[in-house]
Amino acid sequence: MRINYWAKFEEQTHYHIYNRGINGESIFASDENQRYFLSKWKKFIHPYFDTIAYCLMPNHFHFLVRVKIATEEIREKIEKENTSKASQFTNNEINYNTFLEDQFKRLFSSYALAFNREQKRTGTLFQKRFKRIIVADERKLWYLLIYIHHNPIHHQFCQNYTDWKYSSYEVYKSDAATLIIREEVLSWLDGNDTQNAKKIFLKHHEDFKLDKKMMQVHLDVE
Question: What is the pLDDT along the chain (222 residues), one digit of tens a residue?
Fold first, then answer.
């Protein structure tokens, strides 16, 4: 099965997005780096994507997202971006996908500039092309959500996924404000009882096992 690692962004479509440091180098050297990256995600990506899950690790990251519909409200936000790609989109010279790709470029370049300055390094920080794979059905979506939260164990960054600070796992246990579409995701498990939905969510994580057949649709997953 041929996998498209650079699928075009389409409205209301789910994607697994990930990238790593060039040559496997670190992209996060401190908690502050990870907080800063999430602040940049909020600025450049959050207005146009629903975030379902994420995990930031020393040399790579994972996000599970859904593209928002380009409503009039979204188009007004794009107009205010004050970039050439935003202007081109507003003037119908480029499509939504091209504008969104540019937002990711802005995210990576903005973060890399600050990280390089802090670490006194030069040159490219991220691999040139971030990967985004369409998640076509609900079973794959749930598998990847839980896989992303377990990923630090896979890379031996921790022994228990519950101990990893920079993933969205703890967000789902909390009631605090968040960029994650937590209430909607939990409603997929139980639309009438949020506390029961959380219990189901936690149980799915406890019971998680790697599925080789499932991973065949994401063969290059880190």
Answer: 678 999 999 999 999 999 999 999 999 999 999 999 999 999 999 999 999 999 999 999 999 999 999 999 999 999 999 999 999 999 999 999 999 999 999 999 999 999 999 999 999 999 988 999 999 999 999 999 999 999 999 888 988 999 999 999 999 999 999 999 999 999 999 999 999 999 999 999 999 987 766 665 554 555
Q: Is position 222 within any domain?
A: no
- Domain hosting residue 186, numbered range: 14-215
Residue 130, classed as helix, strand or coil, is coil
What does the alpha-carbon distance between residue 93 and residue 84 come to, in Å, rounded to a whole number?
11
**Which of the 8 DSSP states describes residue 47?**
T
Tell me which H or E stretch contains 18. strand 14-20
Give dist(CA 220, CA 8) in Å, integer: 18
Structure pTM?
0.93
C-alpha to C-alpha distance for 89 and 92, rounded to whole angstroms: 5
For residue 123, the cross-strand partners are none
Number of separate domains in the chain: 1
